[in-house]
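hey so i finally got around to running the thing on that chain from the lab meeting. sorry it took forever, my laptop kept dying and i had to restart like 3 times. anyway pasting the input first so we r on the same page abt which one it is
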Amino acid sequence: MDPLCSRTTLTSFYVAKSRVTDFSVLQHLTRLEYLHLGFCPGFTVEEAKNLKGLACLQHLNIIDNSLGTLGLQHVVKGCPNLTSLNMSGLKDMGVGLDLAPLSVLTRLKNLIISRVNTPSDGLGVLTTLRSLEELDISSTSLRVIEPHVQNWRLTRLASWEPPEFGAFRYPGLWVQTKRV
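ok and heres what got predicted. didnt touch it at all, straight out
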């Protein structure tokens, strides 16, 4: 057995900017709470299947990978208790990333989907995420409208364009509009 697998109390694993191509070790790190897989060209749709069984995982960073919608499905299936997901720059081979798989992450509080090519109506599927507190949709085609905000408990919103509602109606919401 791999010595890393025997460390059942390992709670953080950082593999960013790595040339690793075999992520099967992740299946054995069942107590993992934080995982950073950003900028890993070897983390493919097939390798995303190795996330199964990571029920303790709360924070996942998959920045700038080419997982696409199918890979995202493997992520949410394997990590159902995520509270923080950074998928900024996630690519879907030019067809647009479907955000529907995220709707099962009922504990998600922090979601970063900046620089993600997704259909303009993509936020509608996220209205089931009632625990969402922080959302970053900067550098996307997504627009937040009032029905979205009524479903979420947002305290922070980062967006390219101002939201289509009066911020004064939601005094606890900090809105940051930024152009990248």
